[in-house]
Every structure is written in structure tokens, then in C-alpha cells.
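Batch 3, record 17
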Amino acid sequence: MALNQFLILAAFLFGTGVYGVVARRNGVLMLMSVELMLQAVNINLVAFSAFLHDVSGQVFALFVITVAAAEVGVGLAIILLIYRNLGSPDLDRVEQLKG
Amino acid sequence: MNPHIDFHALAPEIVLAATLVVVLVADLLLPDRERWQTSRLATIGVLAAFVPVITLAVDGADRSMFGGAYVVDNYALAFKGFFILVAYVVLLMSVDYISEGDYYQGEFYFVLLTSVLGMSVMGSARDLVSIFIALETITMPTFVLAGWRKHDTKSNEAAIKYLIIGVLSSALMLYGMSLVYGMSGSTLLTDIGAFVAKGGTPPLMIVAMFLTIAGFAFKVSAVPFHFWVPDTYEGAPTPVTAFLSVASKAGGFAALVSIVFVGFYPDKGAWQPTLWVLAAASMTLGNLTALRQTNIVRMLAYSSIAQGGFILVPLAVAGESASAANSAREAVIIYLLIYGAMNLGAFAVVMALARRTRSGEISSYAGLMQYSPGLALVMSAFMFSLAGVPPLAGWFAKFVMFRAVIDAATPAAVTLGVIAAVNSVIAFFYYVGVVRQMWLQPAPEGTEDRPVRIPMALSSALAITTVVVVVVGVYPQVFAKIGELARLGG
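Prediction for the assembled complex:
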């Protein structure tokens, strides 16, 4: 089985995610970009796991999925707070603290 | 096949987990006026969790579970004990702050203890999966804690900046870990170490190590991954800031030490340069930026970045020889213990004074010596200790750091040592700046003459940290012993 195709797909997804986090200013879109990065990790883990015939990569991927869900939960809660207090999910408006 | 479970080895975590459930249920059942009782429950639970740490230390045997993924050795116990005591001091600092505001008391302690539970696991984690889970258990509650003052936009900002950078760094670290797993074929650190020791590390493995270390660099707030630190520290509630600056950072270091020493150690060319650059940049940038801060919390934030750089110094030279590795591991642990005491103490003083002045400006410390000499003396002790002036504990931390550099004795190590020495001098100026405000500047017009009233719990926190800073400064053998004993099992 060709491992490279999966690794290249994962690297592409990861790069897209990094670009999204850097370029987007909307909180929700930034969180989604981080999710892309985490999915890239999962593809890597599962591909390696199948390639190595070793189950621990799949177990790792399951943990990553669970933690990613919790991360989004906390993240959306905080973005919701900002939306309520400032009326916008645009994180460029969040800039009181400087120095 | 049933995995072997050693309940004695897991006892600190079991007690912590039980405590946080009890706190959450008590918060649900207690009437509003009785909610403060949850802080008492949390404190008792944390102290109870310290008991098994002692019994395990007395027992002394290394315990290993789940195929070596979870190890309880002296190294793990040193970190567990440290985290639990830090949690106790942070609880003392939080009690009045939380009960005076409208701050959902029960949930606060629940979330705080969850993070402490993650730290306790982190000390023992020797596997990529368990390190990742422990790290997320530490970090995710702290996102919530940073944004605890829901209606304060500064607190919101602190939380969102911390969250975005936190999840981004987790993703980087995980990507690195997934590649490490793919190259070495195992998530166990000992297996990864054996793979690296075979030599001929593939280039992709070096990239993977770099990404993994970069992920941890966010957690220990090393430059250039430090942008969240000042903003999050300023916006978060002060007890949470104290917790972040000490416990959360030490959690990152616990993981970094076990990954580097057990996993990556044999190929020093792959990880030493990264850590060298991180250490040099953190010290220099942290100190230079701290010089021009006018807000005490922001100054302490940059100071904690710089101190993180000092803690990275021994790690960055650890690969040179076996004796360098030994003294580096000791140096990191001793530095963290001492840094914990003095930084928590400094934040306790900031909280005590903010109750009177409602201000975070360094200029609001003017004339503190006139109206509150006790507080001014204690703050001076913490500032001099952070600067590394004998006979306060900070000098011993700096001493063990330089000893690790001398043990390594390569040109790169010596250069780093010189950078650290120059930085210690720069740091002296801004720490002494605070002391000068307190001792030499007159108090502003209209300052009340009576001393600042400090609540019981906060003054106990101050007393504990002061005693540690003074006693360890005079008798450094106390912590030197812990450093020597804390060997890292496989």
C-alpha cells in the first residue's frame, strides 16, 4: 500500500490549516482551521498504523478525535462570550491588551 | 488479558479525581451562602493527595504500568509533590478573590483541580499518547480559567488569545508526534529512544522532533512562541495568572524533560540546537522587554518568559556528556521548584496590594515601605530572589544552571552561559526598579496610613512562599537532595 499518498494528503491538509489560522480573523474559521490540522494528524496516525500493522496509532487517533471535540467545545464557548460582549466574532476587534 | 493496575501508584490521581467530583456535587447541593465551603473541600482534597506521594516516596520502588506508558519513579514523584503544593498555595490565593467576586465558586475549584490532575499524570507519562492526554488535561481547563470573568472583555481577550495559540501549538506538537510514531513505530518513549540510538536518524525524524519541541515551546512560553503570555497574564484573574506562570509552565517542562531525556536523547544534533536558540531568545527578549514595562503583571509575564529561558539553558547543553545530562536534569527540577515559590509569592503580593490600590501599575508601589513595611519587605525578598541575589533561593537556582553549563563545557554551552550571565545582570535592573519604588519613592498624596489588610488565606500563601525562598536560600541542601534523588526511570 502506498504510504506516501496519505502523508502528502496529510501534509497538504496541515498546511491548509496553518494558512487558515494565520490568514483568517474570524474566531470560528480559525477554530475550523485548527480542526483541519488535527485531522491531518489523524490521517498520518491511521496511515502509519496500517503501514506498521501496529494498533497504537489508531488508539492515538481516537484520543485526538476526542480531545479535538472538547477543544472545539471550549473554543466555541469563549468565542460566543466575545460575540456577546463585542457583537462580532472578528478577533481583530479584540485588542485591549498591548505592550 | 487484564492490564496490571497498581492502585498505590495511582493513589494521588485517584484522590484528586475523587475530590473534584465531590467539589462539583457539593457546589450543586449547597445553598448559595454556603458555596465557600467548596474551597475548603478542594483544599482538604489537595492535601490528602499529598499523602500518597509521601508514602510512595518512602516506599521508593519504581512502579511501571501499562507497558511502561505510566511510570511512578522519584522523578515523577518530585513533580507530583511540586504540583500538589503549588495547587495548595494557589487555592489559598484564590479563596478570597473568588468568594468576593461573583465568580461561580464551585466550578472554579473543579476546573482548577482538573488541571492539577493533568499535571499529576504528566509527571508519570512516558508515552506520546499519555503525554498528549496529560497536556490537554492541563491546558484545556486553563483556557476556561483565563476567561473566568465572563463580562470583562479583557478576560475574554486573555482567554481567546491563549486558546487559539494553545490549540495551534497542540496541533503542531501532534503532527510532530504522529511523524515520530511513524518513523520509530512506537509511541513509547523508551522505544523511540532505542530507535534514535541506532543512529542514522532520517531527516523526517529531525523535522518531527523539531515540531514536537516547538509545540512544547508554546507551553513553556519560550520566544518566539510567547505572544500570548503578557496579554493572557494581564487579562486573566490574578490567582489564575499565578497558576499559569508556575504550574502550567512546569507541566510543559516535565513533558519536555521526559521526551528529550528518554526519547530524543541519543541524537543530540537533532534537538540541542533548537533548545539552544529557544533558551537564548527567551532570556534576551524576555528581559529586554521586561525592562520597559510599567504594569507589574506584564513585567512579571516577561520575567517569567526570561526565567523559562534560564530553565531551558541546562536542557540545551544536556546532550554533551552523561555528567552534563545528570546535572542538567537536576538543574531543571531545582530551578522549577525555586521559581515556583518565588513567582507564586510575587503574585501573592501583587494580589494583596491590588486589594487596596486597585491598580497594577508599578508606580502604585511607591512608598509601600512607609505604610506597609511587612509587605514591602516580603516583596523585596521575592524580587531579589528572582534576580538571583544571595542569600535568597534564586541564587541557588542560577548556581545549578551554571553548574550544568560548566559540566557540558563545549563552546556552544559556554556561549549560552555567557548570554545567561549577561541576562542575569539585565534582569537585576527591573527587579530592583520595583524595590526602589517601594523603598525610596514617597507614597502618593492621600494614601491611607494604615497597613494593607491581608486576608488570612492570602497571608498563609505569602508565609509559605517566603519561608521556602529564605530557607532554601540559606540551606540549599534541602532542594539539592530532591534534585539528586529525582532520577528518571525508563
